[in-house]
Amino acid sequence: MRTSLYIFLLSLVSSTTCQMCPQGTCYAGSFSRKEHVTKGRYLLGSSYRNLSSVAGPQACHSACVGDCRCRAFQMSGKRCELLGEDKDSAPSRIAIDPAYDYYDIHQEILRASSHLADPSVCSNGCCLGQRCLNEGTCVEHCDSPKKKFSCKCRPPCSGKECEKCVYSSCAQITIYAEKY
């Protein structure tokens, strides 16, 4: 009887729900080990944060849902890698490696019903810290859980977080350096 109860309780752990609700827009994600995993695959060049010794895929999933940049995650052993892309946005970078498991995250948007949150204004908390580099402006998005923010870059900078700056002359570099 105890063994049957133990097996039943373990079966409940394979599916969890996680919710991130910083401001007026919340994100809830459900995780099913069977449905959201692609075994023996990883996404090359999309990892931006590594977490070592996580308790398992559920803990990695929770970290991903709570991170504004995360679109998917992958695990190798106990190492969790948060990914800024997923297999839909970068299908050509999926690679084979039996040591890895790739996980899609499935999130939904929940609108907060609070007197503190104006429902007509997008507010998901993703721009609270300075996310954009080189004086870029962070813009929060509340339409898709896969794109929670973007950066409006000032010339001559570009990139997802305005990290790439290409100067046309040495004078431009000097002006930019004196200004900042």
Automatic annotation (TrEMBL):
Domain Apple: 26-107
Protein name in UniProt: Apple domain-containing protein
Signal peptide per UniProt: 1-18
Organism domain of life: Eukaryota
Record's keyword terms, sorted: Signal
